[in-house]
Amino acid sequence: MDAIPPDLSAPGLLVAADENEAAYWLRRAYLAGWEMCDEGDLTWYRSGRYRLLANGIVQARLEPEIADARIAAALAHFTAHNLPVAWFVGPAHRPANLGERLEAHGLRCVGREPGMAVDLHALRDDIPQPDGLTIERVRNEDTLATWLRAYRNGEAVSACAPPVLMESCVPKRFGEDEPLRLFLARLDGMPVATAQLLLAAGVAGIYGVATLPAARRQGIGAAVTRAALLHARTIGYRVGVLQATALGHGVYERLGFVDCCEFHLYGRLPS
Asked: With CB atoms counted within 10 Å of each terminal CB, which end of the chain scores lower, N or C?
């Protein structure tokens, strides 16, 4: 937990942000019981489902002279089963022109988001939030079911992350040995927002922030994000990272996050 320097522009931070994202998708795959494989220079998972994010390549550290051959071999794991595949490209992936090479192999860029980071000891604590808001960590199956309903009704649900996938990719145990932790916000007792916290690679990664449409623009998304980060801070983490949507970018800036890199998602559907 002390491996990441407080300097948010440090190269080590970019590697940690990259590895945290990979760890998030691999943790989901593990919880769902999907196939996973670490080939040293490539890491991938495969569910066998016909959903883009249900099959993916999450890490690539390829030498330029063999990169194209390795890309072709990696894609073959999915082509042979007529499956769609997502390829996550972060700031520490190699070679530097990986995106261009993926496009040459028939993938296209389907998403681009800024990576952001924050010093957890500099989190803003003056963000207004409504009276009657409570935030809790999910610690039992009943609260997990409520969390899933709130997530399903929030902004995070899309064609890439349908509820049926999320329901198989969340932890069913809630001890301190589980690195993926869920947080639920309620307003006057009603579930209105969710967040996920992934503790990996020495940083605290935020994922799955979703707020019900009727509860937006009240500071609730910021509050549930901040609660998850404060939890990480209490157990020794110093830096938080996330990838921001256009809707959430301003919210995270108000919390103290700054842009530090960019993440890309490439995808291919079977012919």
From this structure: C
Local confidence band at 3 (pLDDT 50, 70, 90 cut-offs): very low
Contact between 14 and 20 under an 8 Å Cβ cutoff? The reply is no
% of the chain exceeding 90 in pLDDT: 84
CA distance 138 to 145: 10
d(CA 21, CA 58): 8
Q: Which structural domains are found in the chain, ordered by start?
A: 11-114+263-268 (no CATH), 119-261 (3.40.630.30)
Distance CA 75, CA 31 (A): 23
pTM above 0.85, yes or no: yes
The pLDDT assigned to 164 comes to: 57
- Amino acid letter, residue 234: T
250-261: average pLDDT? 94
Cα four-point dihedral sign 145, 160, 252, 197: positive
